[in-house]
Amino acid sequence: MDWNNDYSCAGKGAKRRRISLETIPRNIGTRKNKPKPYLCRPKAAQHETTKREERNVTERGLKSKIRRLTLQTDTFGEVCDELRRANYPGSAVLVSTVRNEMREIVKLLIEEGLIDKQRLEGYRREYQRERKR
User: Cα–Cα distance between 60 and 7 in angstroms, integer?
Assistant: First the structure.
């Protein structure tokens, strides 16, 4: 743009591309849509989800429970379900982090020969049988 405000160096179609004040919306920044229903829950629904009493456990206790469940179960979903059934507080991110760390440790111990893989699988099967009872 020139100092004279004449757009002579803007090339072909400069007049067509220029924005007029009428085309700019007046209330920029105002929210036109309502908030999503899952982001803004009514207060009654929040109280319904907190009715369940959560166990009062320490950080170490929660991590050790996740580690134990990692040894006893195969999948991430099973660990989350077991924690939910036992009313342990903990997010999926926490479970994922601790579980991945424990799985790496178990893999290393299996590679070094300190844990027998067949015995670990038998331990998991035994846990599944006890849980079904």
Answer: 68
